[in-house]
Amino acid sequence: MILATATTTDVPRLTRLVNRAYRGDASRQGWTTEAHLLDGQRIDEEGLREMLAVPGAAILMCLDESNELLGSFYAQPTGPKVYLGMLAVDPEKQAHGVGKFLLKAAEDYGRQHGCTTSKMTVISVRSELIAYYERQGYRQTGGTEPFPTDPRFGIPRQPLTLLVLEKGL
């Protein structure tokens, strides 16, 4: 697996990957689907460009030797914490270590930027995903955040809340 940092030229393929990993029939091939919770897209090209434009933030990509995009993860250092979000792995490539590879890379990115804590938010009803992150050393803080209301990020089929998870780096 090869680690690369996304640029604006990667936005079209990142958009396809993230939406394929989270929504629609293709996402149901993997275990990280949100298709049963939300309708619509997960992200659009404009949203990804906005994320790439945040100072210090990066979208880390996992590529294979033929430059195929296997997965991606957003990392945004903010003071002592690095916020990690939108881990996406191609549904056909899940359960092969891509997520762990990207999680380690994103945590390393935070350390390189002086962060001592990694923070993420996970939809509260995603018990299997929360359990995965807990196996990776993350702990629920007891904090919650509202689910975004912007339909660019999906249309909830039920009320959703985000749980805050953290891990010391």
UniProtKB/TrEMBL annotation:
Protein name from the UniProt record: GNAT family N-acetyltransferase
Record keywords: Acyltransferase, Transferase
InterPro entries: Acyl_CoA_acyltransferase (IPR016181), Bact_Acetyltransf (IPR050832), GNAT_dom (IPR000182)
Domain N-acetyltransferase: 1-158
Domain of life: Bacteria
Species, as recorded: Hymenobacter monticola
Signal peptide: none
